[in-house]
Amino acid sequence: MITLLSPAAVNHDWLALRSLVQELYRSGIPLSQQEKPDGSDYRLLVIQAALLELLAKRWQQVPPAWVAEVGSLEEPFFLVKSALQMPNLRQLCETQAPESLKKRNIFATPNFLEFV
């Protein structure tokens, strides 16, 4: 299921992403048991690791061990697409993004995915 989170995030499909996160939460499966996805697309792998780490912190769980092995993106990636056109929103994302995202060069609002 986690492999579906990053394509939805990359495509800025927030309805699908929120639904997938809700489904993951309701499944009751500990995040630590999420298997490492196919690493053929490094960008997707990094985004998946960042999202898992973000959710693990918010849900007071332990992320899977493989998350620690995943680095960051070379180019910044904004999960909030409108941040590319709105300077104030971009600055908010760059300065206040959750740490699990920011350390991987991924940016979003501070409350990204808090309300799913």
Main traits of this protein?
single chain; globular; 2 strands; 5 helices; 116 residues; 3% strand; mainly alpha
Could you tell me the mean pLDDT? 91
- The overall number of domains is 1
Spatial strand order of the main sheet: 1-2
Q: What sequence of helices (H) and strands (E) makes up the elements? A: HHHEHHE
Radius of gyration: 13 Å
Distance, first to last CA:
16 Å
- Tell how many strands the DSSP assignment holds: 2
Q: What kind of sheet is the major sheet? A: 2 strands, parallel
Summarize the topology.
Elements: H1 5-10, H2 14-27, H3 42-58, E1 77-78, H4 87-96, H5 99-102, E2 106-107
Parallel strand pairs: 1-2
Description:
There is one protein chain. The longest helix is centred in the middle third of the chain and has 17 residues, at 42-58. The protein has helices at 5-10, 14-27, 42-58, 87-96, 99-102, and strands spanning 77-78, 106-107. The protein is mainly α and 116 residues long.
